[in-house]
Amino acid sequence: MLIFFISCNKQEGCTSNEAMNFNVEAEKDDGSCIYAYDIAQGMWNINPDCEELDVPGIGAISLNDQLPDSINVQGSGGNQLFIDIQGTPITATIENNGEINVNSQSVSIDFGLGLPFPIIIDGNGQIYSYNSGTMNLNYSVQIPLIGAQQTSCVISIYR
């Protein structure tokens, strides 16, 4: 006597290829899909680890002391993000896998000297989960009579 067992159970998981946790083997969507664009938005606490900006005639300026305790990330559709750093909006894009790209852009930031400077900022980052991620930002500032200054920051973000 020969007995065959056939299972009709389909493997469950996230079936959306736009989700961070897409499961290529899932045949039935279980509602567990996590979208990077959605979880990136909101308030994030930050822990910056920045190189000091050494300005001749002024001395070292620590960006760790100049950056806020938190940032607000808002979406504008189409995987476009606005990262608000102390009222300075930085634009970015986020990929389905959580990778963040900050294209080179000019913004104005006060490094604690009471005078905002135009700077070029760019970088990248990664959202790992709803509660954690990282940003790598590069700053380049042209200071009158002093010249170009550059520094970078690795910023842990968490909720």
List keywords for this structure.
eight-stranded antiparallel barrel, 159 residues, Lipocalin, 55% strand, single chain, elongated, two-stranded parallel sheet, mainly beta, 12 strands
Give helix and strand order, one letter per element, not per position: EEHEEEHEEEEEEE
Strand order of the largest sheet: 3-6-7-8-9-10-11-12
Distance between the termini: 60 Å
What would you call the shape? Answer: elongated
List the domain count as a whole number: 1
**Mean pLDDT across residues:** 89
Classified by CATH, the class is Mainly Beta
What does the largest sheet look like?
Answer: 8 strands, antiparallel, barrel
Architecture (CATH level 2) name: Beta Barrel
CATH topology grouping = Lipocalin
Task: Write down how many β-strands occur, each being a DSSP E stretch of 2 or more residues.
Answer: 12
In the predicted model, the low-confidence regions spanning at least 5 consecutive residues are: none
Helix content: under 10%
Structural class from helices and strands? mainly beta
Number of helices: 2
Q: In percent, how much strand structure appears in the residues?
A: over 45%
Q: Mind telling me the C-alpha Rg?
A: 22 Å
